Structures are given as C-alpha cells and as structure tokens.
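Researcher: Please generate the 3D structure of the following complex. Treat every line as part of one assembly.
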Amino acid sequence: MAEARAALDLQLSTPPDLIRRRRIGRVFELVCLVTAVGGVAVLAVLLADVIVDGAGWLNRTFFTRPPSRIPTRAGILPALAGTIWLMSLVALISFPLGVAAAVYLEEYAQKGWLQTIIQTNIANLAGVPSIVYGILGLAVFVRWMGGLTGGRSVLSGALTISLLILPVLIIAAQEAIRAVPNSIRDASYGLGATKWQTVRHHVLPNALPGILTGTILALSRAIGETAPLIMIGALTFIAFTPDGPRDAFTVLPIQIFNWASRPQDDFRHLAAAAIIVLLVLLLSMNALAIWLRNRYQKEW
Amino acid sequence: MATIRVTAGGDAALETRDVSVFYGSNEAIKQVSFEIPRNKVVALIGPSGCGKSTLLRCFNRMNDLVPSARVTGKILFQGEDLYANHVDPVEVRRRIGMVFQKPNPFPKSIYDNVAFGPRINGTGGNIDAIVEQSLQQAALWDEVKDRLGHSALELSGGQQQRLCIARALAVTPEILLMDEPASALDPIATAKIEELIHQLVADYTIVIVTHNMQQAARVSDYTAYLYLGELIEYNDTNTIFTAPTEKHTEDYVTGRFG
Amino acid sequence: MNPSPVSASVLGAVSSRTARERFVRVVVTAAGGVSILTTIGIVVVLVWESVGFFRRVSPVEFLTGTEWTPLFQPQHFGVLPLLAGSILVAVIAALIAIPLGLGSAIYLSEYAPRRVRAVIKPTLEVLAGIPTVVYGYFALTFITPLLRHFIPGLGIFNALAAGLVVGVMVLPLIASLSEDAMFAVPRELRQGGYALGGTKFEVATRVVTPAALSGIVASFILAISRAIGETMAVVLAAGMTPNLTFDPRQSIQTMTAYIVQVSLGDTPFGSIEYQSIFAVGLLLFMVTLAMNVFGRWFLRRYREEYA
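Model: Done. Output below.
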C-alpha cells in the first residue's frame, strides 16, 4: 500500500508538456509587458527629447516677444495670446451648444429613427479627419460668412474648432447625463415638475462634473489642433496679438510647426520650447479634468 | 455534531479532511470532512449561501482564481493532497472536470468547443475520434453530427449544456463536478441531463451541487447537506430524505425553510 | 401662496410655464440639429467645389493618374501618389500600432497587476492626447536622425518616420478599444477555459482574444482610419513630395499633407488648385467615412454577442 502510494506521489505535479506550455505562457506575458511598456518608453523619450532641446530657451524674452527672424529675439507672445483667445471662444461656443444637444438627445428626443440618425451622425462626425473640418470652416466661415466673422479671424477659427470637438463633447455629456439614475427623474416628475425643471434642477447639476470633465478633455484636444486652423487662414507669421474676435491670429501649434519646419538648429530649440509650453497647458487641463472626475464622482 | 455516515471503504475518489475556505476573514466553509466514493453520484444540497458551490470549487482548485480565497485542510485525490505545494492546479483541472450552472460554450464551432481541451493538452491522437466519442457520451452526437462546424451558440440551452459536458469529458477526467447544471434549463432539458448523469456514473465519479431537492433525490446515491458552511449530515440519499438523523436536515428537506 | 396665472381648469396647463417649456424644447432641438447641419455642410461644400473641379479634370484621370503636379506646369491630376502616400503611412503605422496596441491590451486585461495598470493606462491616454505637431517634431528631429544611422538611403523626409510616430499616436486607440472588448468577455467563458485545464496563456489567447475578436478588429479599422486622417505629423516628417512609391525611405505626400500645402500658399479662390483641395478632401472624407462606418458596424457586432 505504501509503495503504491509512493508511486502515485507527484502524480499531480506538473507534467512535462505542461512545463513547456507554461514556459510559452511566461514568454508571451513578457512580450506583452514589453509592448505595454513600449508606449510608456516612447512617451518618456519624447518628453526627454523635447525638454533637453527646449528647456534652455524658456526665458522672459520667449514669453514676451513676437517671433522674429533672429532666433534669440523670438518669442511666442502672439501665438500664446491667440491660443488663449481661441480656447476661450471655443469653450464659450461649444459648451452650451454641446450640452444642449446632449440634453436633447437624452431627455427630449423621441426614441425613434430621428434620434438614431442624429446619434449615428454624431458618431460619424467624431471620426472625420480634422482637416475636413478645416475645409468646411474655410468655405463656410471664411468665405461665405466672411462679412460676419471677419474672414480669416480668430472667430472663424473658434467656430471651426467648436464644430470639430462638438461630437466628442456631446458624447461625453450624454454619458454623464445617462449616468444620473432614473429614480431621481421619477421623483422630480412625481412631484409635478416639468421636464425642463427636472433637467435644470436635478439632471444637469448631478451630471455637471462628468460634463465638465468631458468638456475639458475635448478642449484639450482643441488646443493641439493645427491643420484646420492653417486651412482657415491662421497665419504662420504674425507679430501682433488679437484685439478682438474678428482679428487675424495664430496659435501655439502653428508657431511650433513654423519653427520646426526651418532647418536652422536654433529654430528647432524654439520649437521645442514652445512644445514644452503647449504640453504644460495640455497636461494641466488633463490633470484638472481627472481631479474633477475623482473629486465629484458620485457613487450611485 | 456532524453525522458522517458514509465512508468509501478505501475506495474514495475524493476525501476531504477538515477543509475550511476563507474569503478574507470570512469563513465560508467550516472544517468539512467526508469521502466521495468512486463511480457514485454525490449531491451537495443546502439553502442559498451555504457554501456548496464554494466547496465544489475546491475540488478543482477553481477557488485559486479568487484572490481573497484561502483553503486550509486536505483534499485527497488518489492519496495525493490537491493543495500540496508540488501540485499544479492546471493538471488538477484536467483530471477533475467541471460543468457550470449557466452553459458557457465558447463562441466557436461545436467541434472546436469539444476539441479545445484535447488540443491544448496536447493529447495527440485522433481529435475527430475524441470529439465524436465525447459527444456520444454526452448524448448529443446524433443531434449535431451533421453540423459540427456550426457555431455552438446556435444550440438550445439544453444542447449547449450537454455540449459543455462533452467538452469536459473530452479531456478524460476521472471526476466530474457539476454546479447546478440544470438550473438554467427547462424541464425537458433537465430530464435529459439527469438521464445523462445516470449513464455517465458508470465511468465517472460525479459530484453535483443542486438547490433542487427533488433532483438530488432523483440522481444521487449519496447526499451531503450543508448549512452556513458546515456539513450537517452526509448519508445515502434515501436515508437523508426519508429518515435524516439531524433535525436541521429534516427541516430543510421537508421544506420548513429554504 | 403667490398668485400665478391660472387657466380656467384647475388641472390645466400653466401658460407661462408652457411657453418656457416650448422655448427650451426648441433650443435643445436646434442644438441637436447642429450636428446634422455640420454633416450636410461638409458634404455640400466638398461636393460643390469638387463638381467644379471634375468639370475641368476627368474623374478617370483623377482616380487612375499616377502623377500629381497641380502646383507646377505641366499640371497633372492623378491622385494615386497621394493615395499611395496615405496608405503607405497608414500601413507602417498599423505595423507598429497593432502589435504594440494589442499586446498592451492583452497585458492590461489579463496579466497586469493593479499597480502596473494604474501607471500604464494613464500613460497611454497621455500618449493619445499629445498634439500631432509634437509628434511631427519628434519624428523629424529625433527619429529620422536616429534611423539614418541604421538605414542607408533614408531621406531627411521619409514615410518611415512619419508612419512610426503615427503608429505611436494611434496605438492607444487600439489598446483601449481592444481592452474594452476583452473586458466584455464574460467571466464564465474564462472559467470554462480554466476548468478544462487551460493555462493563463491558453485562456488569454484561445478563449478571450477570439471571443473579443470583433471588437479587436474594429479597433484596428478605426485606428487605420485615424492614421489616414493624420496631418501635421506627416507634413513635418514625410515632406511634401507626391511620389508614387511604397519605399518608406523616400519622401511622400499624403492626401492630408497636400491640402495643407495648398493652404499654406496663396491660392486664388476658384482656381483649379483651390478646387483640387476639395476633390482630394472628398476622397479623404469618403475613405475615412467608409472605414469608420465599417469599423463601428464591427463594434456593434461584439456588443450584440454579449448583450
């Protein structure tokens, strides 16, 4: 009996083919880890490259002067001002428009073919290349409505970019609104409130953190947009800051493009420095969005 | 306290000795000891939450997949403790198969579902023959032999569950664990599964968890009654249902509580 | 109890409230309609000017011609070099993004411990958010010089560097959509795989990944579509030379880069060069739209399987 037992011993331990299978599995896991870390590595290298190239050029001149043929005297003032102007206008235009559209789709629209068409349409628009929006903006806002918008102005740019980020914003706002439980709506209606009262006093306030997060993320996409703005005529060499929405303008990404296209080394440094500024703005917005999401995340 | 009446007379397929299962600090199974005789059907019954599924999952080390689970005690399979250090859980699962409550065929063809186990285990040989044999054993061959390439998801619920049984049989386990295999099925499909159990027990040892007492009475040779993680009584099925020793058991099987 | 306008019936509607409700409804409906207007606008604008273009250039020459020189004399309007450029960049991008993205997704979904996940996931999101000009800069000033050490004949502007950075740009998309698809695979399926004696590797590759295949393929399609629509990174890294070639070491021009190139110059409205923007834009729009629709159809299929 004892010998039989001993013979059976280690019967359930790993048989040889299983050892081989497990080894394959470990190699595979390593490969996948490498790919996952690969992305992180690229990001690290990119950031390091940019910082090394540009950090030394972030001085006072850089922030207070317009671009110049002489690199040591060049700065991002008009580009930075243009970016701030543009983002402010875009926020002003796209936020109410996007939230209203999301409210329509979630609260007012009849669930039927029309709603499906609009929904699908928005999903499609989210995937349209940004340059196509530039073409649209060129034809509509610069040419057709040129009298109103001032042609190649920061307003035209803002309208174009607003259309660009609208689908993304609407989808995010819809999700935030959908996350508000129906029990709250039922309670409100049950007390005799109208649809708008319910939306205004219950749905929107509860959905607001999610909506804001989505808006900030959409805006952080907008801040890096270049091609559509080139199309509507944001100038690549501009020495003044906009005074009003109908003025000509340029933005940081275009300034970066401009400098990066030049062969001289010094302009490369300027481009890198401007990239640092852009990335700082971008990462701040992302951090703000994430902080908002974490702080106000409601557990229903 | 616990009245364990059945021993396998040395021919136990599985033997548990003081097995406890902890989820974190919660003791879900408390010092359970009993033997499961070879080529018999043993039913685990008890009200919801009594731990019968948890206990079942100890037998093929599926609890390993739950991070907070901890198993103490011994579970002897052919004299070897399933939880000994040298034991590979993957090998255990090849020897001790499982069928789940909700049929879970892979979204692949019927053939590929049954062939999955043999293929990954590298049991060379004729996969076609293995597939046919397993489907025959699961009483499904005649119904699907002309459409082995079709998706398994086309089958009805009852057929899918028999497919899962065939799939489990394809790796030639010695013990088959069934976690409420018919609870998601209609009465006709349920009857087919129960009939299948009667046929399979000639070649396999079957442990079945069920919340349906009539089913336990119909299919099993021995029944273990668990309550809140403790093994209250374990005896041949007839005795458990007609003349239980513990009052607790009697209350449960007569439906005084559920 | 403040006096409020009440109609004759006690249960009747309060007229001021109704007016406000109607107003709100009109406003939000109009907002919902803006998206439809946008699409109509895009289609109308593209088609209108393209019609003008195609009155002067035959569609056959456009779609089959192999030389694209609208800005030089003699003018040729064969769009194939631009199309080839876009495809070349997209293919190289896919060769990077698909393995890295899918591998990351499998790792995050099946293997990663929580702390590692908490680092990698946000990093991928940041990667996706970096503006395209920054990638273009990186390709031009870091990647191309680096590659030139290893690859003889690599031009200063080349499709390879552009494809590489575009690949990095879209790999987070593949990673996150594929991970979602794998996450949606029900637990029972995984358990079934383990219960049959599968190792973690086998369950991950032979149960979970096949089950999530629709979602994974959808992510590939959507990523390639985005790669085709990419502009500034390609402009900076690959240059502006229309070139019908599949040699990644050469400078090429994509459809998007051409459109930018024309806008950077002074092109008179109504000229054929101006109109060519819209023709190329229309082609770009149709290609990406077709891919997006196809990709999203695939996405719906996997959602339906586990509804």
